[in-house]
From TrEMBL:
The lineage of its organism: Bacteria, Pseudomonadati, Pseudomonadota, Betaproteobacteria, Burkholderiales. This is Glutamate--cysteine ligase. Belongs to the glutamate--cysteine ligase type 1 family. Type 1 subfamily. GO terms for molecular function: ATP binding; glutamate-cysteine ligase activity; metal ion binding. The keyword Secreted does not apply. It is an enzyme of class 6 (ligase). PANTHER family: GLUTAMATE--CYSTEINE LIGASE. InterPro entries: Gln_synth/guanido_kin_cat_dom, Glu_cys_ligase, Glut_cys_ligase. It catalyses: L-cysteine + L-glutamate + ATP = gamma-L-glutamyl-L-cysteine + ADP + phosphate + H(+).
Length: 523
């Protein structure tokens, strides 16, 4: 019996553990006006405080909504909450709607893109100044790119059942999640191929920027075989971070490299300084202002308390869950992700958690995995495309079929735990995409643009308006509506309370926040 078969057998005898898997979603989306222009309005008061409302906040821009679910033990419950949040928001947007695409709507000049505002408290100002720093470092347009973040965790006894090494539950959990991340890094190119939905972008987004995209029409640029321009070097890309390679072999080395990145000055940022004309423009002049500035397709996560640093929380209490950050918004789904995609993600992540996951060589860096991901993002549908697996070339289609075959038994385990065949069907539904690139969402998106002779902007605006109207046409149950309204009121009061409780200056608060970063134990 192979180790893989043995693990399957063990998990099949512990199906209730699999039924305890938790998943949650954070879905971003720009507010736009009726013409698809970025909304210039403030975050609506009717949605509560962006600082303290746990379900409705903003990301980078004041116009970039982030809609957040709690964690759920089933996909239907997860998507039901996500839909309810969308329906509540749709009902409160006056003459605006959510842009249901990862690449931005028509943006105003950089200076006119509003940075998210969280009030006058020190906590709120820290979030705001951090975003000012993102603006001066990377530009505002890049920060308007949106996506879907998929959070995933397993019960602690899952790692016990698999025999994960570690003296404490926290050690086993952290080692298990890092092993999951290593496998995710190896195979996440497949997610770009299967679910990438941003092969085109408005020409205005790249105005004044050198690029190699082709013109589909006067307002649309694209790459003929791209799957996700959002996750290519046209999206989240930064010179300062290009040499930063985090290590997922062990938590100690990971935290050491994070610490170095958030505590090491970067000369171009030093030249900017932290203030301009007497106002803060960035939190510090280090390579990263804070840990979350590092752009990655997956992150080990741990909930933090007020003024607690993410790295400090990870060092103290270990990894709690993982956050997948590379999923494009599904423009065909009113809430940005379909149930089928969610079922597939659960099976794929379980596969990543259970399969053997050797350490990465070269000081924890896997160049082949990074190159595969980048290549598929920009050229994934290219006929005959070859990737690199274990230093050997392999056809994308062959490797894709192999991975789906390996994921399928995990989907079967999940179906045994939950009942039905949703997970297996979700995996099987991906086979036609691997067999023929024309079945992928990115190919279908380009086909719609060509067949309907619509620009990327006009097509996305039409879809976004249709989704908006469909959501508004289904009023929330009164009890659920009242829960949202109570949450709005509570969040506004919570922001006021925080603002009134501050007893130190913002400069003192920033100094205390930086001092809260603890140097990790040497790996």
């Amino acid at each position: 019996m192979t180790q893989r078969t043995q693990r399957h057998s063990i998990l099949r005898s512990h199906l209730p553990v699999l039924a305890g898997i938790m998943r949650g979603i954070e879905k971003e989306g720009l507010r736009v006006d009726g013409h698809g222009m970025l909304a210039a309005t403030k975050h609506p008061v009717a949605l509560g405080s962006a600082l303290t409302n746990p379900q409705i906040t903003t990301d980078y821009s004041e116009a970039l909504l982030e809609l957040i679910t709690g964690t759920h033990t089933s996909v239907p419950a997860l998507l039901a909450e996500l839909e309810n949040v969308h329906r509540f928001v749709a009902g409160k947007l006056n003459n605006e709607l959510i842009w249901n695409q990862s690449m931005p709507a028509h943006l105003p000049p950089e200076a006119d893109i509003p940075i998210a505002w969280y009030g006058t408290s020190n906590t709120g100002m820290l979030k705001h100044v951090y975003r000012r720093g993102l603006a001066v470092r990377y530009g505002k347009a890049m920060q308007c790119i949106a996506g879907v973040h998929y959070n995933f965790s397993v019960p602690d006894n899952f790692w016990e059942i698999l025999g994960t090494e570690g003296a404490t539950p926290e050690e086993k959990r952290s080692k298990g999640y890092l092993a999951l991340i290593r496998n995710f890094t190896r195979y996440s190119w497949l997610l770009m191929y299967l679910f990438g939905s941003s092969p085109a972008v408005s020409a205005r987004f790249l105005e004044g920027t050198a690029h190699n995209l082709l013109a589909l029409d006067d307002d649309t640029l694209y790459l003929p075989h791209a799957t996700s321009l959002r996750m290519s070097d046209l999206g989240y890309n930064n010179k300062a971070q290009s040499d930063l390679q985090l290590c997922y072999n062990d938590i100690e080395t990971f935290l050491k490299r994070v610490y170095d990145a958030v505590s090491t000055p970067w000369p171009p940022y030093e030249a900017m300084g932290t203030h301009r004309d007497g106002e803060w423009i960035q939190l510090n002049t280090n390579l990263l202002q804070i840990e979350n500035e590092y752009y990655s397709s997956i992150r080990p996560k741990r909930t933090v308390e007020r003024c607690e640093r993410p790295a400090t929380a990870l060092a103290a209490r270990g990894v709690q869950y993982i956050e997948v950050r590379c999923l494009d918004i599904d423009p065909t789904a009113p809430v940005g992700i379909s149930a089928q995609t969610s079922y597939f993600m659960d099976a794929f992540l379980l596969f990543c958690a259970v399969e053997d996951s050797p350490y990465f060589p070269n000081n924890g860096f896997c160049r082949d995995s990074q190159d595969n991901f980048a290549l598929v993002s920009k050229s994934g549908r290219q006929p005959g495309l070859a990737l690199v697996n274990s230093n050997k070339p392999i056809a994308l289609a062959d490797w894709g079929r192999e991975i789906l075959e390996r994921v399928l038994p995990y989907a079967d385990l999940l179906d045994a735990a939950y009942g039905g065949q949703n997970h297996v069907q979700a995996v099987l539904a991906q086979s036609p995409k691997v067999a023929d690139p024309e079945n992928t969402p990115s190919a279908q998106a380009l086909r719609h643009l060509r067949d309907e002779r619509l620009s990327f902007h006009d097509y996305t605006l039409r879809q976004s308006r249709a989704h908006h109207e469909a959501l508004r046409a289904q009023p929330l149950d009164n009890a659920i509506q009242q829960q949202f309204l109570a949450g709005v009121a509570s969040s506004l009061q919570a922001q006021t309370d925080i603002e009134q409780s501050d007893t130190e200056s913002f400069t003192e608060y920033v100094a205390r926040y930086h001092a809260a970063l603890k140097k990790p134990v040497a790996a």
